[in-house]
Write a structure and sequence with these properties.
The complex is a heterodimer of chains A (about 130) and B (about 550).
Chain A: E1 2-7, H1 11-21, E2 27-32, H2 35-45, E3 49-53, H3 61-70, E4 79-83, H4 88-95, E5 101-104, H5 109-126
Parallel strand pairs in A: 1-2, 1-3, 3-4, 4-5
Helix pairs in contact in A: 2-3
Chain B: H1 16-30, E1 34-38, H2 42-54, E2 58-62, H3 65-74, E3 79-83, H4 91-101, E4 106-112, H5 116-126, E5 130-134, H6 138-195, E6 200-205, E7 208-212, H7 214-220, H8 224-229, H9 241-252, E8 260-266, E9 272-284, E10 287-296, H10 298-358, H11 364-391, E11 398-401, H12 403-421, E12 423-428, E13 436-439, H13 440-457, E14 462-472, E15 481-489, H14 496-501, H15 519-529, E16 533-539, E17 543-551
Parallel strand pairs in B: 1-2, 1-3, 3-4, 4-5, 12-14
Antiparallel strand pairs in B: 6-7, 6-10, 8-9, 9-10, 11-13, 14-15, 15-17, 16-17
Helix pairs in contact in B: 1-6, 3-4, 10-11, 12-13, 13-15
Classes of the chains: A alpha/beta (about 130), B alpha/beta (about 550).
């Protein structure tokens, strides 16, 4: 069972992602709806992968990402960024070298799931 | 003047009382005159002198005729009393001489009874006033002198009246001469005005030019002689002749005053030029005619045309500005709203995926329903993706490219689809290598969009041709060169109403959800961002031509 952490202020989006991913008992998903809470959960639970939304109130996804990558406890965790923007150039500029992947919302669950699996495979090969 | 009057003296000497009174009265009236008396007899001279001097007259005495004539020449003399028999010059001769000098001087001749018959004729014919017979009585002399003076007075008055008449006559004559001079002067002035006029001035009568000014020969290229031989219509452009003839006929009939109108005039060398005419009715040599004042307005027409062109271009630019302003507004709007919509959409899609999995073994109808809901959500997302392109800052990553290569690449992307539809492709590329500096992926997006539109417009078979060429623009507002890409299809074409809305965001004729209505407006925006131009011409049922121009690297329009 792989551990997935969602940090997204859209609670219902997290709800359906969780419901979809947990359907086949391959993943266990934790949903948080803001940056601080997400960082805390990341440190405590050491998830296998984090789905992190960029546009959030209070602490936005880019700040959260920076903190994750600066903390030794969490910097190895792969992060897939979620965004409602589809301007590749500005997304790349924003996340720079920190993140491996990004996903533009909305996304079909099958696509999301295969993307998560791909990232996890790459991660396990690398380690 | 040879008027002669014999005074009838009374046979008897009048009574002293009544006569003296009368004489004194008359003498007072007639005093102060100059009387010349000529007689070779000194005693008679003295007598005359005393009598006349006493009457208040100035008396000149001459002892011979010659002296008498000299006295008349040298003095203002009123009357002369001449003895007929005198040495050197007799009285008759002196009379003649005096009348020549001043015909108003009245002359009394003095003669004896014995001579009177001899001289009567001469006296009468030479214009003497009267004669005094010797021996005379003083009263007789005074009487004759008085009458002579009266006669002279009336003569002088008559003369001065005549002089007045003459003066007036002269004045009238002078006035007439002055008027003639003025008339001639104004004629010369008018002539100068007509000959130096910057307008053509001509008199037309019975299909002939009766008069033309130098400007007419200058502007038409015909000589004055030639112009008098040709029909006036020959200097009017054939297409404008009916109009000119009709208006001229109306003016000749006296209708419509003198309307000013423009037409094209024709030079001898066949060149036409715009003129404006003002025609009036007149009479020329007693017959009806028209005078035409014709002004060369070709410069004005040129300026008007340039102004109209500039106006059209400004309107065009304004249209483009409005369009791009609309797009910019849409961009700002969509940037704000798309995120807000994309998040709920992602929830909807996540929810549908969840439900579909849950019911995977269940109801087929429910599965179809979920599929339809998901398709609709994805379409909404597709539209949002398009909208977001407007909100993107127009950061172009510019490269030097040959558009021909880009066209070939894009065509190859559509090859399969076109072969399915049995579409024949024709290409004709400019031999010279045309290089443009553009954002390759954006231009490819445009080309793909335009080619796809062309393919979709041809439901079945069809011909698609793509052509490139170099264009030199010679516009008032933009010059220089461009690479033009023309895409022509034989599809269904676009109606006039649709053509006007083509670049409006969300305008689409693709009913079956194939289009978002953003393809052309995005393409337009991309081309505008490249300082290019996108133009579509089409007619329903006749196919469509898309003309895309991009500034060339060298000498492109800036």
């Amino acid at each position: 069972m792989r551990e997935i952490l969602i940090i997204d202020d859209e609670e219902d989006f997290g709800f359906f992602v969780k419901a979809n991913l947990q359907m086949n008992d391959e993943f266990h998903v934790t949903v948080t709806t803001e940056g601080k809470e997400g960082l805390k959960a990341a440190q405590e639970q050491k998830p296998d992968l984090i789905l992190l939304d960029i546009m959030m109130p209070k602490m936005d996804g880019l700040k959260v990402l920076k903190k994750l990558k600066e903390n030794k406890k969490t910097q190895q965790i792969p992060v897939i960024m979620l965004t409602a923007k589809n301007d590749e150039a500005s997304i790349n500029d924003a996340i720079g070298s920190y993140s491996e992947q990004y996903i533009i919302k909305p996304i079909e669950m099958a696509t999301l799931e295969s993307k998560i699996k791909n990232v996890l495979t790459v991660q396990s090969l690398a380690s | 003047m040879g008027n002669f009057q014999r005074m009838n003296f009374p046979e008897k000497e009048p009574l002293a009382s009544e006569n003296i009174f009368e004489f004194k009265k008359e003498a007072r009236k007639m005093s102060g005159k100059t009387v010349l008396v000529a007689d070779d007899d000194q005693a008679i001279l003295n007598l005359f002198y005393q009598v006349l001097n006493r009457e208040g007259h100035r008396v000149l005495k001459a002892t011979n005729g010659l002296q008498a004539v000299e006295d008349v020449r040298g003095n203002p003399v009123d009357i002369a009393i001449l003895d007929i028999r005198m040495p050197v010059m007799d009285g008759i001769e002196v009379l003649k001489a005096i009348k020549q000098i001043d015909p108003t001087i009245e002359v009394l001749l003095v003669t004896g009874y014995a001579d009177i018959e001899n001289f009567k004729q001469a006296i009468t014919s030479q214009g003497a006033f009267d004669y005094i017979l010797k021996p005379f009585k003083i009263a007789e002399v005074l009487h004759a002198v008085r009458n002579a003076l009266l006669k002279r007075d009336s003569l002088l008055q008559e003369k001065s009246g005549n002089q007045e008449l003459e003066r007036r006559l002269l004045q009238t004559e002078e006035g007439f001469t002055e008027r003639t001079r003025q008339l001639r002067e104004s004629q010369i002035q008018y002539r100068q005005i007509i000959e130096n006029s910057n307008d053509m001035i001509m008199v037309v009568q019975e299909e002939r030019l009766q008069f033309v000014n130098p400007k007419t020969t200058e502007l038409t290229g015909y000589s004055a002689d030639e112009l008098q031989k040709i029909s006036p219509h020959q200097i009017v452009h054939p297409e404008d002749r009916p109009k000119v003839e009709e208006i001229d006929a109306r003016i000749l009939r006296g209708e419509n005053g003198s309307p000013t109108y423009a037409f094209r005039a024709l030079r001898k060398n066949g060149e036409s030029f715009w003129v404006e005419t003002n025609t009036i009715r007149t009479r020329w040599e007693e017959k009806p005619a028209t005078i035409k004042f014709i002004r060369d307005i070709s410069e004005r027409k040129k300026a008007e045309e340039a102004l109209r062109q500039a106006y059209e271009e400004l309107k065009d630019i304004q249209g483009k500005l409005i369009q791009s302003e609309k797009l910019a507004a849409l961009g700002r709007f969509s940037a704000g709203i798309t995120h807000e919509i994309k998040n709920p959409l992602s929830i909807i899609i996540g929810g549908i995926d969840f439900l579909a999995k849950k019911w995977s073994a269940g109801d087929e109808e429910a599965r179809v329903a979920l599929k339809k809901i998901k398709d609709a959500a994805l379409r909404a997302d597709h539209i949002l993706m398009g909208l977001l392109k407007f909100s993107r800052p127009s950061k172009l990553s510019i490269e030097r490219i040959n558009p021909v290569e880009l066209i070939k690449d894009t065509l190859s992307l559509l090859q399969y689809r076109m072969s399915l539809q049995n579409i024949q492709v024709y290409t004709e590329f400019e031999a010279e290598e045309l290089i443009v500096n553009v954002d390759k992926s954006q231009i490819q997006q445009v080309l793909l969009n335009l080619l796809l539109n062309a393919v979709e417009a041809m439901s079945g078979k069809g011909k698609l041709s793509v052509q490139t060429y170099k264009e030199v623009r010679s516009s008032l507002l933009a010059g220089k060169t461009a690479c033009v890409i023309e895409i022509t299809d034989t599809g269904e074409g676009i109606s006039r109403e649709d053509l006007a809305k083509l670049f409006e965001p969300f305008f689409t004729t693709k009913r079956d959800s194939k289009g978002t209505g953003l393809g052309l407006s995005i393409s337009k925006m991309i081309i505008d961002n490249h300082q290019g131009n996108l133009m579509i011409t089409s007619e329903k049922g006749e196919g469509t031509k898309v003309r895309l121009s991009l500034p060339l690297e060298k000498g492109g329009y800036s």
